[in-house]
């Protein structure tokens, strides 16, 4: 942590890179860190691979979407990003002095300085980093960013990764005067019409395997386009699948482009889904992981089901 502190202190311009398809933890951690660095009187640019999901506009501030003009910089910090692959095209700007701040146990320690904590969210680590400088830097905006980061990665403080420290950090954020009911309402109680209609479609077409312990849904590119869906609409399908009584693993296969598929896995049983994703070059956590592959949907679905049945 002191090494990161020294790196930030000796830097004029920092790039902050959240992982591709940034989730609440990545978005919140990146914006909180940028706001903090700007408070130090330095320049910080958050560079996304794609525009952040609309749901996070409540905490979004100035940011760039790559490829873009980024100019000279002397430090690049990745947040919530377990490997270089998760930087996408921005791997080419993750050069020179680099810092990797993350909490995925599958992290490959790819930077010059690596901090991989056993925290529920990267947001918790950003909180600790700011605290290392001074608690005076915290403000309502940074608090709302970090609350978004920590609450989304803990499923609103419901998942098993929620520790006493997580709740103590959240309590400190509430003391900053953040509007947590407003954030909760936006993050957890608001659906777009498209998303809700798609959920009906998922419920009607999902498939159950292994005595209803695995629930799987496959979305083809063709179907994605004909339903005029957005990535936001389909982002929480695996959680929906896992919510069914008796289901231990929810698996969502999404054909992003022709022959290129993304799998997201959720577990609430004994299965460690990060172990399933790892041989496919993916990563994540015990209860939430993902990977990508190219090729035929049905062939890959069968390979996945075989692997899943081995760990259940
Ligand atoms: Mn995270």
Main sheet record: 6 strands, parallel
Give the distinct bound molecules: manganese (II) ion
User: Could you estimate the helical fraction of the residues in percent?
Assistant: 25-40%
- State the helix count: 12
Task: Please mark out the parts with pLDDT under 50 across 5 or more consecutive residues, or reply none.
Answer: none
General shape: globular
Order of helices and strands: HEHEEEEEHHHHHEEHHHEEHEEH
Radius of gyration: 19 Å
Distance between the termini: 38 Å
Classify the beta-strand content into a percent band. Answer: 15-25%
Mean pLDDT: 95
Strand order of the largest sheet: 3-2-1-4-5-6
Number of strands: 12
- Briefly note the structural class of the backbone: alpha/beta
What does this structure look like?
Helix content is 38%, strand content 20%. With 312 residues, it is an alpha/beta fold. Strands 3-2-1-4-5-6 form a 6-stranded parallel β-sheet. A hairpin with a 4-residue loop joins strand 7 and strand 8. The longest helix is centred in the first third of the chain and has 16 residues, at 24-39. The protein is globular and about 55 Å long. It binds manganese (II) ion (MN). Residues 25, 80, 103, 121-122, 153 line the site of manganese (II) ion.
């Amino acid at each position: 942590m002191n090494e990161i502190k020294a790196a930030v202190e000796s830097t004029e311009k920092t790039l902050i890179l959240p992982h591709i398809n940034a989730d609440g933890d990545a978005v919140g951690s990146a914006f909180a860190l940028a706001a903090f660095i700007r408070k130090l009187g330095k320049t910080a640019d958050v560079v996304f691979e794609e525009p952040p999901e609309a749901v996070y506009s409540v905490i979004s501030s100035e940011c760039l979407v790559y490829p873009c003009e980024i100019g000279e910089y002397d430090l690049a910090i990745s947040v919530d990003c377990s490997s270089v692959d998760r930087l996408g095209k921005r791997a080419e700007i993750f050069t020179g002095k680099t810092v990797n701040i993350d909490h995925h146990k599958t992290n490959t320690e790819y930077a010059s300085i690596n901090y991989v904590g056993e925290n529920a969210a990267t947001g918790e680590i950003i909180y600790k980093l700011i605290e290392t400088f001074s608690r005076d830097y915290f403000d309502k905006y940074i608090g709302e960013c970090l609350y978004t980061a920590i609450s989304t990665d803990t499923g609103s403080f419901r998942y098993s990764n929620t520790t006493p420290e997580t709740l103590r950090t959240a309590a400190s954020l509430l003391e900053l005067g953040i509007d947590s009911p407003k954030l909760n309402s936006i993050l957890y109680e608001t659906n777009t019409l498209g998303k809700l209609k798609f959920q009906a479609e998922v419920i009607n077409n999902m498939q159950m395997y292994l005595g209803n312990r695995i629930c799987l849904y496959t979305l083809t590119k063709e179907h994605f386009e004909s339903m005029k869906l957005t990535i936001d609409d389909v982002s929480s399908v695996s959680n929906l699948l896992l919510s069914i009584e008796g289901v231990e693993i929810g698996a969502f296969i999404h054909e992003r482009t022709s022959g290129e598929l993304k799998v997201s896995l959720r577990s609430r049983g004994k299965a460690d889904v990060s172990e399933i994703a790892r041989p496919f070059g993916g990563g994540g956590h015990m209860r939430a992981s993902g990977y990508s592959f190219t090729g035929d949907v049905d062939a890959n679905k069968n390979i996945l089901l075989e692997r899943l049945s081995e760990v259940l």
